[in-house]
Amino acid sequence: MLSACSRGTRALVAVWMMVCLSGSLVNAEAAEVDAGKVHPDFHIYLLIGQSNMAGRGAVDEESKTTHPRVLMLTKDLKWAPATDPLHFDKPMAGVGPGLAFGKMMADAMPNVKIGLVPCAMGGSRIEEWEQGAKNYVAMSARMREALKAGVLKGILWHQGESNIKTGSAYGAQLVSLINRLRKEFDAPDVPFIAAEITDFKGTGEPIRTFNATVHAVGKKVSNFACVQTQDLKHKGDRLHYNTESARELGKRYAKAMLGSLDKK
Predict the structure, then answer these.
(1) Is 76 helix (H, G, I), strand (E, B) or coil?
(2) If we measure between CA atoms, which residue out of 263, 233, 201, 229 comes closest to residue 49?
(3) Cα distance between residue 118 and residue 56, in whole Å
(4) Closest by alpha carbon to 260, among 175, 195, 191?
């Protein structure tokens, strides 16, 4: 009979082997989509906008909990298991809506992998996402690399804090961006999900007008939705979502995206 010590040693070895195998499986999935072949069951989602898309929530233990079918395109253009922070726009990048979105999409569609392409840039105006602008050029290059492995299935947009005073003109700018992205990536009807700007500072009418303008874009382009956010909470700075609200926003994005995909 094995001694208690021997049984304990074998148990530790077994656990170690399971951990190694688990890591190998995750890395194998990442390697599979890195092979330069387009996989129709690898669904790509583009994340763009400014800081609340990039994420400024505090990173916690859940931030490092991976999903076996949710990957992210790293700064070095490699596919890796998705963890927070997804973005790398600024040193304070933290928890945003992207990871919670990806996990919910994967759970809803068990036969596909989800690829998140983080491209948001804190503080950016919508003008910085026009064709030829620095943010647009960088995003386009990352997307073209991502699309070597999968198929674009949706775009998430959260931006506007820098354009609050733009007024109704913002709607035309957003319509132009949507049409440009769909044309560039040969995805004429890909779902585009935006989100309201949360009135953390009690700004009132300017933000209500801005959000109404964003919602109205749905009358001008197909497969568009705008997620409500007024009940979400900031992290103490009256500007950025806290960790819990960032994840809740990601889930709302996922619900809207799933609704758009169902319609298609």
Answers:
(1) coil
(2) 229
(3) 14
(4) 191
Q: What is the pLDDT of residue 35?
A: 53
The token duo for 47 is 């994340």
The separation between CA 110 and the C-alpha centre of its own chain, rounded to angstroms, equals 19
CB 45 within 8 A of CB 115: yes
Mean pLDDT, the chain, rounded, equals: 89
The widest CA-to-CA distance across the chain, in whole angstroms, is 80
Q: Which DSSP letter does residue 241 get?
A: B
User: For residue 154, which of 128, 177, 124, 181 has the smallest C-alpha distance?
Assistant: 181
136 within 8 A of 129, measured Cβ to Cβ: yes
Active-site residues, by number, are: 51, 237, 240
Q: Single out the residue of 43, 90, 37 nearest to residue 69, CA to CA.
A: 43
The CATH number corresponding to 36-263 among 3.40.50.1000, 3.40.50.10240, 3.30.530.20, 3.40.50.1110 equals 3.40.50.1110
Rounded to the nearest 5°, which phi and psi values hold at 73? Answer: -90, 115
What is the model's pLDDT at position 120? 98
Cα separation values, 159 from 31, 69, 122, 134, 247, Å: 33, 27, 9, 16, 17
- pTM beyond 0.85, yes or no: yes
- pLDDT digits over 179-215, tens only? 999 999 999 999 999 999 999 999 999 999 999 999 9
Instruction: Name the 3-class secondary structure at 102.
Output: helix
CA dihedral 63, 65, 192, 173 (to 10 degrees): 20
Residue 124 structure tokens: 């950016």
pLDDT value for 32: 59
